């Protein structure tokens, strides 16, 4: 396996800047996720690591060896795509073995590697079938087995679960994480699904506009987002972001809504208050300034949207909360759980434990 490093990597497509001066270290044996919205540069970054896209400038190294000008087939990487890219006229066994045959690996070794990979992924009984006879999940496992048998230095996965249904996607998350740990492989995984990132990754690289917004362990992203973008992108429902004025005494005011925060380590002035839905407190109150818009009862919890003068505030509550649309409520927050961001830059106000890097 390998440590992958990108130093000042930039990619232009014509007049469009797609990746802007990326600096990133992906540790050997880690599961690192590139997370961000469509068009943020994450797939282009993955393709530059693989060699499918050339860098405009900058360097990419595997264990200190520069590879940015090395042909893709010589970089010793394996890719798994959103589309499974299986040969329809070949059996599962032939699909898995194809790359090894092209490398002229001895037949006995090919049989052994194919058997080991199939057993690892639970598809040994499918080796004589063709792709059209397989479910989506089975096809994805074949694509993974094809990558495993190559024993590459780096595994690159581009939204490999997006075509699966919700239950199978959840099952495959577990299988992929177990596979990475068993192989102790360097996995680089691209997704726009924060649930996948939070549940699987050792480290998450949040990207937007071709720039790394934050690079940290999943829970560090959640607890201490570096800026407004990370705060709102990571977490479901999204963090409430409320623009207002913080007083010297720790009172936050936005239109007619106020929150008493006390001493929270932020200077008085115009700020953006961020608060997770689970840290919003609702109380039925006929004199409250909020009005319930909707209550979504999800079995284990309820998501409540409240209209306030400063805009909608979303709360996570107990599933049996006795509120109905149209009711008046009081809305408060847990002061120790709020986040503050500068209105002009969007940057976090206060300490940032991961300092933009995983611990």
Notable features of this structure?
alpha+beta, Rossmann fold, OB fold (Dihydrolipoamide Acetyltransferase, E2P), six-stranded mixed sheet, five-stranded antiparallel sheet, 8 helices, 20 strands, elongated
Structure commentary:
Strand 7 (154-158), helix 5 (166-183) and strand 8 (187-191) form a beta-alpha-beta unit. This protein has 2 domains: 4-228, Rossmann fold, CATH 3.40.50.300; 238-342, OB fold (Dihydrolipoamide Acetyltransferase, E2P) (Beta Barrel), CATH 2.40.50. The chain is α+β, with helices and mostly antiparallel strands. It is elongated. The protein is 24% helix and 33% strand. Residues 353-359 have low confidence and may be disordered. The protein is built from 8 helices and 20 strands. The two termini are 21 Å apart. The strands form 4 sheets. Strands 6-7-8-3-9-10 form a 6-stranded mixed sheet, with helices on both faces. A 5-stranded antiparallel sheet has the order 13-12-11-14-20. A 5-stranded antiparallel sheet has the order 15-19-16-17-18, with no helix packed on it.
Distance between the termini: 21 Å
CATH fold name of the largest domain, please?
Rossmann fold
If you average the pLDDT, what whole number results?
92
**Quaternary assembly:** single chain
Q: Tell me which CATH architecture of the largest domain applies here.
A: 3-Layer(aba) Sandwich
Uncertain segments of ≥5 residues (pLDDT<50)?
353-359
Q: What is the helix tally? A: 8
Spatial order of the strands forming the largest sheet? 6-7-8-3-9-10
**What is the CATH superfamily label of the largest domain?**
P-loop containing nucleotide triphosphate hydrolases
Strand residue percentage:
25-35%
């Amino acid at each position: 396996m390998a440590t992958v490093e990108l130093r000042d990597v930039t990619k232009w497509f014509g007049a469009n800047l797609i990746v802007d001066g990326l600096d990133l270290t992906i540790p050997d044996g880690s599961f690192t996720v590139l997370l961000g919205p469509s068009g943020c540069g994450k797939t282009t970054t993955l393709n530059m690591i693989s060699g499918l896209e050339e860098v405009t400038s900058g360097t990419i190294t595997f264990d200190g060896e520069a590879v940015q000008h090395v042909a893709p087939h010589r970089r010793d990487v394996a890719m798994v795509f959103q589309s499974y890219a299986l040969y329809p006229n070949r059996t599962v066994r032939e699909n898995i073995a194809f790359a090894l045959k092209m490398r002229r690996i001895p037949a006995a070794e090919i049989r052994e590697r194919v058997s080991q990979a199939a057993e690892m992924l639970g598809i040994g009984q499918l080796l004589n079938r063709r792709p059209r006879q397989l479910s989506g999940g089975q096809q994805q496992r074949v694509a993974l087995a094809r990558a495993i048998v190559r024993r590459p230095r780096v595994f690159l996965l581009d939204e490999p679960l997006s075509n699966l249904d919700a239950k199978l996607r959840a099952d495959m998350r577990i299988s992929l994480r177990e596979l990475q740990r068993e192989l102790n492989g360097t996995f680089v995984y691209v997704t726009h699904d924060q649930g996948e990132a939070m549940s699987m990754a050792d480290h998450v690289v949040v990207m937007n506009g071709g720039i790394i917004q934050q690079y940290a362990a999943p829970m560090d992203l959640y607890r201490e987002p570096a800026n407004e973008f990370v705060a709102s992108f990571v977490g479901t429902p999204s963090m409430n972001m409320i623009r207002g004025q913080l007083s010297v005494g720790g009172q936050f005011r936005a239109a007619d809504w106020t929150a008493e925060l006390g001493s929270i380590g932020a200077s008085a002035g115009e700020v953006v208050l961020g608060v997770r839905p689970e840290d919003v407190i609702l109380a039925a109150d006929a004199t409250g300034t909020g009005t319930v818009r909707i209550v979504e009862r999800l079995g284990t919890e309820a998501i409540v949207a409240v209209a306030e003068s400063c805009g909608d505030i979303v709360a996570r509550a107990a599933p049996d909360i006795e509120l109905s649309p149209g009711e008046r409520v009081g809305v408060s927050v847990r002061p120790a759980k709020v986040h503050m961001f500068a209105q002009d830059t969007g940057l976090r106000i206060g300490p940032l434990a991961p300092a933009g890097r995983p611990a």
